[in-house]
Amino acid sequence: MAFLEISGITKHFGQGAGAAVDDFSLSVERGEFISFLGPSGCGKTTTLRVVAGFEQANAGSVHINGAEVSSVPANRRNVGMVFQAYALFPNMTVAENVGFGLRVAGQPAALMQARVAEMLELIRLPDYGRRYPHQLSGGQQQRVALARALAVQPQLLLLDEPLSALDAKIRIELRSEIRRIQQELKLTTIYVTHDQEEALSLSDRIVVMNLGRIEQVGTPFEIYNYPRTAFTASFVGHLNLLPVQVTDAATGACTFEGTALASSQPAPNKQAGSARLAIRPEELVLGGAGANRLSGRVLSVNFLGNVVRVRVRVGAVELSVDMFNERKLVLPAVDAQVVLSFPAHACWLMD
Amino acid sequence: MPPLLHQVFRPVPFCTYYRMAEIADTRLARLQPRAGFKLAAVWTYLGVLPFFVFIIAFLIFPATNLFAGAFQDAKGNFTLVNIQGLFSPYILKAYRTSLEVSLITSLSGGVLGFFVAYAITMGAAPRWVRSMLLTFSGLAANFGGVPLAFAFIATMGRTGFVTAILKSICYSAADASKVCPLDPYEAGFSLYSTVGLAVTYTYFQFPLMVLVITPAIEGLKREWREAAENLGASAWQYWWHIGFPVLLPSILGATLLLFGSAFGAYATAQALTGGSILLVTIVIGQQIRGDVLGDTNLGYALAFGMVVVMAVCIALYTVLDRRTSRWLRR
Ligand SMILES: Nc1ncnc2c1ncn2[C@@H]1O[C@H](COP(=O)(O)OP(=O)(O)OP(=O)(O)O)[C@@H](O)[C@H]1O
Ligand SMILES: [Mg+2]
């Protein structure tokens, strides 16, 4: 059995309400960093709260380190949790906040002080022990919240969108900090986010969720490059979809408005007919020598910094093309006629 | 965050009025056109003139008069006789009774109100119970004086209907005599005593507490409780280390408010007991009524004494508040 074993968790809020979490099963190995990624309301927080013991599931079980915990109250699970924001105790100093868990456990003061100092060192705020929460920035508050959760040496760390109340720059800084600390302590961690960049950059594995269900579980590389459902494909990263007619289901050959296109995988339902051909914007090349070629007209050119996103109208659809920015890049003109190409292995058929 | 916390944890009456005045003030400032500044200023002052007239005529002037009167004899000469008069056994007893009633009712009303507020915010009470209780509190907190006294006389008085119901619950004892165990007046209760007065005051004290403390309890964040639980704390430990300390400044402020409202009450006690329980306010009433037995200047001294008591209470509150809300200050 894996270190954390979630099996068949289902949670309804009240009679007649749909399932907030629907038959959720997941095995997490010791020391793994897992992200729950999905749109708002898909049940990420609810799942996390079931694991933490704040919510009672209607069905299913949770095993931590081999022990079934459904009947263990939240204050006995030894699972650390970091909330979205404002969860520091306002009437206590930073040091008192961090030491709170040890204090209520009746640990000796000397041990508590040593541990608090160690934790403040870990989050790189060693001189902030005497401050009150309102005297800290949002980013500092979240660091302290992390230290407070870690001080009791939890067997599992749960983070519910810990960075979503912070601004972009601090978010990036703090997320690598979280990853560093997690690896230093080899701590099994579940991280809830609806920011795909965060999930992709931090996780060992990502759990993509939608409407209370798991869509796909995989490494960031698998999730991005081999999405198994249309939802995953379009939720993670940007995706172009071409309505095509499948001509040979076995080889994945198809036509788009009369132009023959090749893909490398067989059609998912193994038969000819209508389908959609998926391709990432960065796989499309203006000009180029790819096997598949489409011609269209440039609608707009958006400069995003490291990439330039070009919108091209091809027949009845609009496609996004991403080009890496470099100083010698020649930007296409709006309204220019262009040819797009892409190799067969870059695209795949979906229902 | 800190200013917000400050708003949440202060008793409503003070902070809301203060905030409203502040907002109105800044709006006004923005509305004033630069060019017509002088004219606008004149109009502004004209607008607040009635307020100042009112304050001077009915607050500052009488208060000065009262303080001066406390140190004057009937002919207007300076004297300390009135102040000395405050230390006569009769008047000291009045102060003691007033303080007792105020303290008991502010504590009993405070505790009761706190638990009602707790139940309607933290408990599983449905929304309509909550809004009904808050509406009731708004009414009851302002329902004092003569009507309240008569309401209690009609229910809990010697012939009140609640008394009658309790009296009628009887059984026959072994020796065939009639025993009525619930008769309140047999058990020593009297509405016209200090205890009765305290019960009556509690009627407007506890709703006042509910009104003042509910927003503060609502300000307790769910995350604090869950974070505490998550770190291994029991419900008691949460309340002891976080919930109660965070509420303490508000509780202190609210208790002071309750104390003041009981200490200054006059009509309820007068109507209920006909002046037979000597509270300071009732003694003042006797002195300044203007009949031959009264001594107006002693009345002034009594009022002066009340101001001193309230000032001491506020000073005490300020010290306690500084200690308990250390974490709120920048
Ligand atoms: N206490 C509750 N009572 C009733 N319904 C709830 C409760 N908590 C959550 N829900 C519902 O359950 C569903 C899942 O909510 P959840 O908070 O888990 O979503 P989430 O994925 O965390 O979303 P977000 O990204 O917005 O935080 C939602 O439809 C929500 O309305
Ligand atoms: Mg959530």
Give an account of the 3D structure.
The complex is a heterodimer of chains A (351) and B (330). In chain A, helix 2 packs parallel to helix 4 and helix 3 packs across helix 4. Chain A starts with a strand and ends with a strand. With 351 residues, chain A is an alpha+beta fold. In chain A, the strands form 4 sheets. Chain A has a 6-stranded mixed sheet with strand order 6-7-8-3-9-10, sandwiched between helices. A 5-stranded antiparallel sheet of chain A has the order 13-12-11-14-20, with no helix packed on it. Chain A has 8 helices and 20 strands. Helix content of chain A is 24%, strand content 34%. Chain B contains 14 helices and 2 strands. Chain B has 2 domains: 46 residues; 204 residues, Orthogonal Bundle (MetI-like fold), CATH 1.10.3720. Chain B is mostly helical and 330 residues long. In chain B, a hairpin with a 5-residue loop joins strand 1 and strand 2. Classes of the chains: A alpha+beta (351), B mainly alpha (330). Chains A and B meet through strand 6, helix 2 and helix 4 of A and helix 10 and helix 11 of B. The structure holds adenosine-5'-triphosphate (ATP) and magnesium ion. Adenosine-5'-triphosphate binds next to helix 1 of chain A.
